[in-house]
């Protein structure tokens, strides 16, 4: 099938990495932002409950 005669070139690796990061942020960015927003709100509510009860 495919034969690998030499290592991957540096520009190819950098380009693939940039594409991976950009597409990853596009796919997973909004759900992760929503998750962290809910998590921070939950932690803030727990701190308020601890401060008011203690």
TrEMBL record:
This is Transmembrane protein. It comes from Perilla frutescens var. hirtella (Perilla citriodora). The keyword Transmembrane applies. Keywords: Membrane, Transmembrane. It holds the Pfam family PIGBOS1.
């Amino acid at each position: 099938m495919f034969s690998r005669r030499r290592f991957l070139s540096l520009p190819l690796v950098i380009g693939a990495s940039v594409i991976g990061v950009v597409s990853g942020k596009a796919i997973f960015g909004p759900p992760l932002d929503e998750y962290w927003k809910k998590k921070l709100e939950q932690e803030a509510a727990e701190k308020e409950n601890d401060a008011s009860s203690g």
